[in-house]
Amino acid sequence: MNNPTTSHDNCSTTYSDQHTATGEKPIAKSPAIDFLVGGLVCLVGIVVTIGTYSAVAKTGGPYVVAWGAILFGGIRCLKGFCALAS
Questions:
Q1: Helices marked H in the chain — which ranges?
Q2: How crowded is the C-beta side of 60, counted as CA atoms within 13 Å?
Q3: How far apart are CA 34 and CA 83, in angstroms?
Q4: pLDDT tens for the chain, residues 1 to 86
Q5: What's the pTM?
Q6: What are the structural domain ranges in the chain?
Q7: Residue 47: half-sphere exposure toward Cβ, Cα within 13 Å
Q8: Which residues contact 45 (CB under 8 A, 6 or more apart)?
């Protein structure tokens, strides 16, 4: 049972430190996963942007520019690619 008056400072330990202390294996971070997931997220953002724009191109109206997905995915993909290349 947890004692509510006990203070724990978990800010100084990382996720992998906490799991290593309990005997669990830390999750390995793979550059290939970053590359693939980033590329997929970026591609989905581009597809959403093109799809919504083409739907209103002739008639006019609002469309979605999925800049967050494109930017986040592009950065993550580039980060994974650079790690794989080195």
A1: 15-21, 31-56, 67-85
A2: 0
A3: 9
A4: 555 554 455 445 444 455 556 666 655 578 999 999 999 999 999 999 999 999 999 999 999 999 999 999 999 999 999 999 98
A5: 0.66
A6: 35-85
A7: 7
A8: 66, 67, 68, 69, 70, 73
**Cα gap 36→57, rounded to integer Å:** 31
End-to-end CA distance of the chain: 48
Place of tokens 């993909």: 77
The structure tokens 């469309």 sit at 63
Length of the chain equals 86
Instruction: Using alpha carbons, select from 34, 40, 69, 66 the residue that is nearest to residue 53.
Output: 66
Q: Tokens representing 84?
A: 């794989």
